Amino acid sequence: MKLLPRTKRTRAAALGAVALSGALVLSACGSDNNTGSGAGGAQEDGASDIKCDDAKGQLLASGSSAQKNAVDQWVKDYTAACSGVTVNYKATGSGAGIQEFLQGKTGFAGSDSALKPDEVTQSKKVCKGGQGINLPMVGGPIAVGFNVDGVDKLTLDADTLAQIFAGKIKTWDDAAIKKLNPDADLPDTKIQPVSRSDESGTTDNFTSYLADAAPKAWPHEPGKKWPIQGGQSADGSSGVSSQVKQTSGAISYFELSYAHANSIKTVDIDTGSGDPVEATTANASKAIAAAKVTGKGKDLAMELDYATKEPGAYPITLLTYEIACDTGNKKDSLAAVKSFLTYTASDKGQDVLNDLGYAPLPNEIQGKVQDVVESLS
């Protein structure tokens, strides 16, 4: 499919200078069932702009729960235009999504962290003559949500967060927390850290932040699996956010929209660069704008600076990728994969993210993603 030259979009006005500098931000929530089928005849506004080409049948995908809200909207709009396609995206978590993709069960996977070298090697068995590649679609802040009676505003730094999640700081009136919050009325309530029980790209990004920004307090290697045994845990971002909502003294990490949806207060991060930084999409954009493409060839994996000290930059961020074969995609799903991802990476697909609490890809990265999607075979 030949893509038209990019044009000035209305979303630029909404994003302002942040978008023009190349911002990516994300937050997400939603249900786990995203099955959609096109509505014959009656199409929503803009649906006629979606190019279905030869796409037909059922497109299966799974993975990241962080992008869930975006995928819900994309599926709704896409299937309204392409009545011959049913798209079913399951928010199983990044780890499970990658495994299903590597087993050849899905057309693409969603992941909040790029494929590891051994996963790329495994993908060559599924992608005949090619390999799995990372295509960034959205990015954004990982909020640290807390539930402490009488405390509406809380500031923590990386070292204190690492000690809290490692179980070394045990009560909310600990001296380290008091030092960062001299005006807060901190109770002696026991701290209840909650981690993800499933393998998660959100966990991978959060532990990468702790390892990079507080290496002495957090000696664990980053990864999708939570590295510490014991303590409270729950499945998915919806699970950990619900646990925080109902547990006094709880604290956990999840995408920003889960905090908004559950009215959970979030931590401001002291990065050592001046004023503490609030978890907002605009502040995450400042950190993500400096991300660099590290993937080779058609792979667009990117590297974030979790230890950034850029004023106003929120450091705990993630990028969500769609993972597909560069070549060797299954013949029965290739047309649907290309058509659907062409839409999600298009101006139309990216524009819908604003109203969902997401921000579009930077122009430069969006253009690269479009080119790669067009070349999938």
What does this structure look like?
This protein is an alpha/beta fold and 377 residues long. The protein folds into 2 domains: 12-141 and 292-302 and 319-375, 3-Layer(aba) Sandwich (D-Maltodextrin-Binding Protein, domain 2), CATH 3.40.190; 142-285, Periplasmic binding protein-like II (D-Maltodextrin-Binding Protein, domain 2, 3-Layer(aba) Sandwich), CATH 3.40.190.10. Helix content is 34%, strand content 18%. It has 13 helices and 14 strands. Strands 1, 2, 3, 4, 5, 7, 8, 9, 10 and 14 form a 10-stranded mixed sheet that branches. Strand 7, helix 7 (201-213) and strand 8 form a beta-alpha-beta unit. It is elongated.
Task: Give the strand content.
Answer: 15-25%
Question: What is the mean predicted local confidence, pLDDT?
Answer: 86
> What is the β-strand count?
14
CATH class of the largest domain: Alpha Beta
Structural class: alpha/beta
What shape does the CA trace take?
elongated
Q: Any low-confidence stretches, pLDDT <50, length ≥5?
A: 1-46
Helix residue percentage: 25-40%
Q: Please identify which CATH superfamily of the largest domain we are dealing with.
A: Periplasmic binding protein-like II
- Helix count from the secondary structure assignment: 13
Report the span from N to C terminus: 12 Å
CATH architecture of the largest domain: 3-Layer(aba) Sandwich
> Under CATH, the topology of the largest domain is which?
D-Maltodextrin-Binding Protein, domain 2
* Number of structural units classed as domains: 2
- Secondary-structure element series: HEEHEHEHEEHHEHEHEHEEHEEEHHH
Largest sheet: 10 strands, mixed
